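Before going further, learn to read the protein records used in this course. Taken together, the tokens spell out the fold as the letters spell out the chain. A record is reproduced here so that you can trace the correspondence yourselves:

***
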Amino acid sequence: MSDLLKNDDIESINIEETLQNSYLDYSMSVIVGRALPDVRDGLKPVHRRILYAMDKLNLSHGAKYKKSARIVGDVIGQYHPHGDTAVYDALVRMAQDFSMRMELVDGQGNFGSIDGDNAAAMRYTEARMTKYAGELLKDLEKNTVDMIDNYDATTKEPEVMPTRVPNLLINGSSGIAVGMATNIPPHNPKEVLNALKALLANPSITVPEVMEHIPAPDFPTGGIIYGKKGIMDAYETGRGRIKVRAKTHIEQKGKKEIIVIDELPYQVNKSRLIENIANLVKDKLIEGVSEIRDESDREGIRVVIELKKDAMSEIVLNNMFKQTQMQTTFGIIMLSILNQEPRIFGIIDILKHFINHRKTIIIRRTIFDLEKAKARAHILEGLRKAIDIIDDVIRVIRASKTEDAAKENLVSEFDFSEIQAASIVAMRLGRLTGLEIEKIENELNELIKLIEYLESILKSEEVLQGIINEEFDEVLDTYGSSNRRTEIEDDYDDIDIEDLIPNEPMVVTITHRGYIKRVPLTSYEKQRRGGKGKTAVTTYEDDFIESFFTCNTHDTLLFVTDRGQLHWLKVYRIPEGSRTAKGKAVVNLINLMADEKIQSIIPTIDFSEEKSLVFFTEAGVVKRTNLSEFSNIRSNGVKAINLDEDDTLITAKIAGPEIQYLFIMTKMSQCIKFEIEKTRDQGRNTRGVRGIKFKHKGDKVVDANIIRDDEQEILVVSEKGIGKRTDAGEYRLTNRGGSGVIAMKMTPKTGKYVIGCLMVDETMDMMALTKAGKMIRVDMQTISKSSRNTSGVYIVKGDDVASISRCPKKPDEDEDELVIPPSAEELE
């Protein structure tokens, strides 16, 4: 082993440096050789090699189709030493009208669909180049680009295509390299060519001036782009984000509305989108949809979404935009290769590099044509000279023993060049006729003019630019009739679904079992003074209206759950129903977890910083958070309070500047009243502070309230149905976190526990639910008023009370139901 280590052939290397160098080599190979397009022709190596192989197979536009397998075989055999599947996938995409703005391959057979269907196997499909692809290869044979060795140096391939069209912008590109990615959107050919002409005319053109010609990307699948800021960012810096929406329209089917999807965002799979919408409808994350059908055909996309009678198309559509790929974000990264290096370009840089590429191509083409013209003119000059001395030329040729000797004799005797001598020796006698001699003269004169013109191109930048401009006009004549497919809408962020919905007064009813509905206030207004009144809701036998208030369609309901989660629901998202309808289960309108219960439903007209949301937990924790903290609405809600593992949220209340005190009631008849200012505002993601300290083991909070002033009355009810009204001033003011005072004198008559407490309101009754499932409505004004440390009177007899809550005032005997409820503003 020691002898081996002394061998001079062994070289010590640093493994870290070796790994770095090896990975860098690999990275650059992927970046330059596979994943990123060239800024000049917009092609990745695989696409360039496919087109070059098709050109070698004479598969130009108009030629007979050839099997795709033959094309793929030539590509991987001669130019692209990678898998045949990858090459065929690239060829298939080049033939898809929903992937390419201008297809490069004209495919015959099944080349896949927008539904995500795979193309047929390569042995079944056939292909040739499109007319547009021919523009990328035009003048390739005129030494316009460098030809480099293929992977095994057995043949040559073009380094770049001498394209006449700005393919990078027209067809875009996407690819993931090592440590970088590109995502260039497709554009309208006519717009890009007009922008190139504008840049030629004004080299100092600005991005806003370019956007007069290219206002935005133009996707092959259409759709609608919202907002121009992301486009401006991308065109200026090479990076930006644009929002793309499906194009839809609304149709009427009887009393129901139908949403029809006409166009999809770029690269969205139609069948997967329909499946996603169906699953969201099934999971009740999208409400109001009764049926989904795909009626698409060869004429175009038509996805029909039928709505239920009470569904508003604007709301359903907005939900689908938010939760599905009917709205996508296209992140633009205009990264491409220049001089074997990856760079991010703004749109003006891309246009300039294409013009520079065209200049190079035209100069090289001109040099090629000039050399060819000069070579032909040189031969014609020799022929003309030989015709003038044809007798002497014939004599010299006849005297020569061989053809090579004849050439040498012509060169030495008449001063012809070797090329001219070879042409003279090969000339047929028929060229000596008068007509043929005239043709030689005419051809020579034309060549002299051509040479002068070609030389002028090389001498004059102005002439060169004129040719580029003419070529752009030619391409425009061919491809300039393509109309824009993607529409553009301004100011996406300013568009709100609320702008489409009138802000009208509504009556919202919520039952004890959690059924909710809204009814226009006009359904009740005619009964405001006198009359029998109108039934507000038809409930189940074991249900009753628990909350009943007026608010506007743009107001918000806050739903607070026992797990401390807070959800929002705009009033206009509540299904509208008739006066007698039961409504819809609220659990179908917000995203609740399994076994999660709603503890409070709070209406609010705004999220003013002058208001607070106060939370009370079973373990005696209280927390106050500024209402403005909850203004940022999220579909899945937010964590409003951090609960201890064994704690549960009991209730939450909105407290305005007029609220003075917080009141907490425990199961074992403890209560505490303290100033609201004893709790400072805390952020959303906090636990809160101690509100009450329990005296008895096993005690817990059963209810809590906010108190405006000491003149308000508090109703306390025990488990045996004993209750009493007491002035808030009777409850001594203490410090937060103390044990408080006795709320009710507990006796065998009252039972061991307090069930809850309510703020007495002359517009509201108390509804008691017994353990046997009976419901008893009691006018709170009829309950005796007592001092704090007393028991009270029977409210419910014969059964233990399970829970109490407030409900709208019981109507008079000649009325059916409450007429006008309090407003959300009054409730706050």
User: Anything to note?
Assistant: The first strand starts at residue 66 and ends at 67. The mean pLDDT is 86. The domain at 597-827 is CATH 2.120.10.90 (Neuraminidase).
